[in-house]
Amino acid sequence: MKPVTDLTKLTISEAHEGLTKKQFTATELVDAHLSAMEKARALNAYVLETPEKARMMAKASDERLAKGEARPLEGIPIAIKDMFGTEGVRTTACSHILDGFEPPYESTVSAQLWRDGAVMLGKTNNDEFAMGSSNETSFYGPVISPWRRNGSDTKLVPGGSSGGSAAAVAAFLCAGSTGTDTGGSIRQPAAFTGIVGLKPTYGRCSRWGIVAFASSLDQAGPFARTVRDTARLTTSMAGYDLKDTTSVDVPVPDYEAAVGRSVKGMRIGIPREYRVDGMPSEIEALWEKGAQWLKDAGAELVDVSLPHTKYALPAYYIVAPAEASSNLARYDGVRYGLRVPGSDITEMYEKTRAAGFGAEVRRRIMIGTYVLSAGYYDAYYLRAQKVRTLIKRDFEQCFKNGVDAMLTPTTPSAAFGVGEKSSGDPIEMYLNDIFTVTVNMAGLPGISVPAGCDAQGLPLGLQLIGRPFDEETLFALGGVIEQAAGRFSPQMWW
Amino acid sequence: MSVDAATVRRIAHLARIAVSAEEAQHLQGELNAILAFVEQLSEVDVSDVEPMTSVTPMQIKKRSDVVTDGEKADAVLKNAPAREDHYFVVPKVVE
């Protein structure tokens, strides 16, 4: 039997195999993670640990295992982003305005993970209402990345908004985790922390029970340390849900079966517009290396053009805040969360929302309110939605010409320091999502796979973008990159 | 386009967010930076382009018009900051 301290290092497939072969119990697996979490509180990856629930679920898993009735994720310790409603377990979207909120329901995606035997370790930190790219806007404070630059103890961000979920996987504080991705919130933190993260096709996973940010862009997805584990989690999380009319009723394949599948003859688009000014040469070199790996595996590389790429981010900063301003109107101090008293109901609303929302959320609600206000709707929102049609058309054109997937860098830089980009110009932070946001605007699936490290020892990711509902191709291609690049883990300092 | 201080206060009121004079000034700068950034969309030719209404071409599924849920007043009210019996309590809204 393996020593208990090693159990956190297992992949999901390894852990599942060990459990079914009775090399250790689900309780031992969970205890190893709970103890790792306790030692890693300096990272602030979890905003709520749920040890009692975890042990209870592990016990139930051990009973199933004893009877030889293991489900696909039996006993696997999972962390849940605080955007997912978890029944009876505090869910705040890391906002002051949802203080103490305990949903009387379970989100569909997390419910499916539990249906398949997974065990909940706790709720992970994120940017407030998933608005941010560094996990610094959380009411519970920033997440500190488990990664550090060579020879430096500067605190780095894990990326965002799903920073806690990414840091927890990278630091071995869970075997896998959930995230939500509205403009890059799964793929960018996956790249910054050297792990795998998938944003599925819009409609692939139910949004029911997830705190809404921008409903036409939000999509749930998994984080894990390997492509195979990510695929297994996707199979569990995906599927049609009557309670979300935007979820799509197409069968869920066994995504894991796509890992290791041949990519011979696949046509991979290299979009020239992603070669942006000021991109570090290391990222450019890694991109070329990734293309070569795919070519070596038998794929064909083709230069493609996505001419409206540069307009995706500005269009996003109209569409996302507009939808957010509408979604966040529900936080009124009446039905749940924080209430600040006022002399009348309007003052109560205004004071509650001023105290409950952080600066970034207030800013986005204000922008959204402005672009939807009388006289400005056509100039901003309508125009942005037209530009969105053009962005989607760019991709459709490439797919129609026989391109199976695109390869791009995930981010224009490696992780940056805490506080480095959060003080001044909001646009500087927004530019982090320049390569990921197009995918949300077009509703496509995208995966980030770790592919190398920069000169300072920080991980960098490559992104693969696929046709709608063709996550399988992404897993096949992602597997090739993983095979060539290997896996990346931070040096433990915490 | 850019916003002036009066517009910032008007938007804040529409959004039901109290802002101090100092915050309004700060917000004005930030909102104008974002508006300047999105301004580049005006160079795109969008004539004859349909605005996107749904990223996936799909028919929304319909279900029978029947009650599938309900009788959960306690659960609905459980998280309310102020409640009385099965009512949310708010400051007086009608004179």
Task: Describe this structure as you would to a colleague.
The complex is a heterodimer of chains A (494) and B (95). With 494 residues, chain A is α/β, with parallel strands linked by helices. Chain A has helices at residues 12-20, 26-39, 51-66, 108-115, 163-170, 187-193, 227-237, 281-296, 312-327, 345-356, 359-372, 378-400, 426-430, 437-442, 471-485, and strands at residues 46-49, 77-81, 119-124, 176-181, 196-199, 219-224, 267-271, 300-304, 405-409, 446-453, 459-466. Chain A contains 15 helices and eleven strands. Chain A has an eleven-stranded mixed sheet with strand order 1-3-2-4-6-5-10-11-9-7-8, with helices on both faces. In chain A, α9 (312-327) crosses α11 (359-372) and α9 crosses α12 (378-400). The mean pLDDT of chain A is 96. Chain B is built from three helices and two strands; from the N terminus they run αααββ. Chain B has helices at 5-14, 21-38, 73-77, and strands at residues 83-84, 87-88. A two-stranded antiparallel ribbon of chain B has the order 1-2. Chain B is flat, with a radius of gyration of 23 Å. Chains A and B meet through α9, α10, α11, α12 and α13 of A and α1 and α2 of B.
